[in-house]
Amino acid sequence: MLGAAVLFALMAICVGLAYARDPGLSTFVASALRGGVNLVAIVLIGLRRPRELLGDGRAELWARGVFGGVSLIAYFTALGHLGVGESAFLNQTASAWVAVLAPFVLGERTPRLVWLAVLGSLLGSLFLAHPRPETGDTLGRVAGLASGLTSAAAYLSIRRASATNGPVTIVFYFTLVATVLSVAACLLLGVPWPRDPWVYAWLAGSGLCATFAQLMMTEAYRTGRAAPVAAAGASGPALNALGGWLVLGQVPDRSAAVGMAILFFSGVALPYLAERGARSETGAG
Question: What pLDDT, in 10s, does the model give residues 233-278?
């Protein structure tokens, strides 16, 4: 999972470098190019077993694609306005949303201890996401929060789809739907495509990093204990923030730094509290 976190951080940094080369780069173009490369890569990986790509076509696969595609566009919007660190931490609020929504979507009870971490995530989000009118980044913060909520919906869809479908199938549907949504938005809005070849290079790199990160993350959840895996995944936003600082010179303000710190510790604690709460409630039963 740590490998996946590193690759996801590299993906975000590649996107940040693309925005640095072309400040006017459209979010839809960026997500379309990233998704397109991701789609080609996963198709090539799945060519050995073509039937595995399509899976059983159940509704949850398409739901994962739609929610994941919207989350990708929202996340890239946040990246263009806030930078890689703050965007990643806002996206990481997905873990808290999963805890809130799981009882209603999956019928799984959220242990009482987990709500402490959820409240911590909420507090961190308030520090990180409150608008700064002087910087004009309200859209980026709203988009970052939206990416977390839609990511949570995508993760819940994965849980239901994975009962009869493997990692390659799930990633294929995500990249297919996300690419179609992004390209359709580009065509409908008539947004300009970049002319700088380095923009294409950085976005292609982000797509390749994302492909292998998604496969590694799925394999980690498939073979490892959920709590340690999820806690390791919580290191991702911290790696993003470090990379944004070292590579792109993006330094968060004081309020954002406090929010990021709270979200980091809440994200690490949440999976362990979930596991501990589940054990205690099982024992009590």
Answer: 666 676 777 767 777 676 666 766 676 677 667 666 666 666 665 5
Residue 199's CB: how many other CB atoms inside 10 A? 21
Residue 195: both structure tokens together: 């002319």
Helices marked H in the chain — which ranges?
Answer: 2-21, 27-46, 50-54, 59-82, 84-91, 94-105, 114-129, 138-161, 167-189, 197-223, 226-233, 235-248, 254-284
Closest to 80 measured CA to CA, from 1, 162, 10, 23: 23
- Residue 239 token pair: 């790696």
Tokens 């596991």 -> residue: 275
Angle of CA points 284, 220, 226, to nearest 5°: 15
Q: Are 18 and 203 in contact (CB under 8 A)?
A: yes
> Cβ-count burial of 48 within 10 angstroms (0-12 exposed, 13-18 middle, 19+ buried)?
exposed
Using alpha carbons only, give the angle 210, 211, 217 rounded to the nearest 5 degrees: 80
Look up residue 238 and give its amino acid.
A
State both tokens at 20.
């640095």
CA distance 150 to 279: 29
Residue extents of the structural domains in the chain: 2-280
DSSP 169-214: HHHHHHHHHHHHHHHHHHHHHTPPPP--HHHHHHHHHHHHHHHHHH
Collapsed DSSP state (helix, strand, coil) of residue 249: coil
Q: The whole model's pTM is what?
A: 0.76
